[in-house]
Amino acid sequence: MAVTGLVVGIAAVDALRPNAVAESQSRASVIDIERLNEALAGQGSVGDAHFLDCTLSETLPNFAIAWDGEPGQRIFEATIDGMVSGARPGSGHRESVGGDDTVEREILGFEDKTAYWRTVVLSVEVLNDFDSEADMPSEIKVVLWLDGATDPAVILRGLPGQRIFAVLEAPGRLEPSDAYPVARNGALIGVVSDDGALSLPGLDVYEDGYMDGLTTLSAIETASEAPMTVLPLSTANGYWERTDCS
């Protein structure tokens, strides 16, 4: 009887063990996401820069800018919902101003302590690009800019396995040349919750105004199905200006 009881006891413990592991993994995931969001929120402020887009809806494929009467074109290359399958170190960078006032960029090792900023490269499975006419690859590389104050280990550890929402520039501005940089210097990326809710913590105090109510994947999907909007802009004065942003 003692042996039988021991076997039953072990079986009972084994039956509970998967739930305990799952709970532990869930807690770890929550902690990782909190740290990840804190790291993204701690990125350099985007508030003092002059950007063409006013709200998140303007990153979608049904919004375009028409420059000086030309056909409309999207502000950014793509807006995606995707799964991060991996993250690896990119490179470190240091910049200086040359004698002719041009900015010179020096590429350093990822671990170089003198780097002003660095990048990480994400492998992403694209689940939705909100554009029925686009030919977006199903697997892409995304390069994320990190300022010198951001702990890259948090990003490298926290993003793999996460579902993300991101606005992307066309490849070519950052290495590797086939990777899509996250728009607004890395600010337009965030983790999607299980219920489809999302945030863009890198926008800091500008987040609410920029997202303008598009805080779920379903809301973004609905917004992407609205009629096309083409905004005419002129550079006749040698610069462009938008007066319709709040």
Describe this structure in words.
This protein has 246 residues and is of the alpha+beta class. The chain is 26% helix and 28% strand. The chain has 5 helices and 9 strands. The strands form 2 sheets. Strands 2, 3, 4, 5, 6, 7 and 8 form a 7-stranded mixed beta sheet that branches. Strands 1-9 form a two-stranded parallel sheet. The longest helix is centred in the first third of the chain and has 40 residues. The termini are far apart. The N terminus is likely disordered.
Major sheet: 7 strands, mixed
Structural class: alpha+beta
Number of strands: 9
Give me the strand/helix succession.
Answer: HEEEEEHEEHEHHE
Please estimate the helix content: 25-40%
Alpha-carbon Rg, integer: 22 Å
Number of helices: 5
| Average residue-wise pLDDT | 83
Strand content: 25-35%
N- and C-termini, Cα separation: 77 Å
Spans with pLDDT under 50 lasting ≥5 residues? 1-28
Q: Which of globular, elongated, flat, extended, rod-shaped describes the shape?
A: globular
Features:
alpha+beta; globular; disordered N terminus
